[in-house]
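#struct-help
A.M.: can someone run this one for me? Single chain, 255 residues.
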Amino acid sequence: MWSMAVQAQRLTEYLPAGKTEIAVVVCPGGSYCWLSKKYEGSEVGKWLADNGIAAYVLEYPTAGWAAFAFHTRWFYRGHQHPDPLNALSDAMRQIKRRYQTVGAMGFSAGGHLVLSAAAYLPEEMKPDFIVPVYPVVTFSHPAVHRRSRRGLLGEHRWHDRAMCDSLSMERHADLIDCPVFLINCKDDPVVNYRNSELMDSALTANNKPHRYIQYATGGHGFGTTPERTTAEAIQWKEKFLQWYKQFAPKDQKAQ
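D.P.: on it. Structure tokens below:
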């Protein structure tokens, strides 16, 4: 299923001042149509580096606005599944050579991508932990984010029931073995909040290690930028920094 060649990608590195054995691949959102390169990319990378974690922001292949708007993938393949997952797999292969622990953090559609990686990548490329932030989760439940589904699957496959079921990550929580830090907001106006609730329920039912935090207010698309959300929701950053220390070597935990 994942056999296609890796598509063009770009990794931007953000390194902390001191030595670290932990890295995180950051996958911005954008409905699999574009990438939120600032708020869910460069700003996230800088924040992780400022907190002692090496960050690698991945610009994975997306449909592009023109292809989405003009339905050109009826005629030309363009970028679609599994190109983003192959790009993340290639990034994980590169970065795992350099660090003891490598996680993946994804926002919105990027959250769906890191969930897919935890379920479907070969063991040696799977992330050691994942952080889906206000993620797209389902492709088959009524709570589906339709733009992300068409963005990833293209015009020929986005109504294919078997394909949609295979990429509805709440249906495949049994394949996710790494720890999961999951957050979203109940007032999210873009991705229905039930996406994260479905994922939480599935992880719980399968006895998978995870932490789920749902905030009442905060919206969508804020990344790590306090000015784009509520004082309540931006607390996720501190919660994550406490949570991730379980993966840190002893000398880093003390920092």
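A.M.: thanks! The CA atoms of residues 167 and 243 lie 27 Å apart.
D.P.: also worth noting: The longest strand covers residues 101-107.
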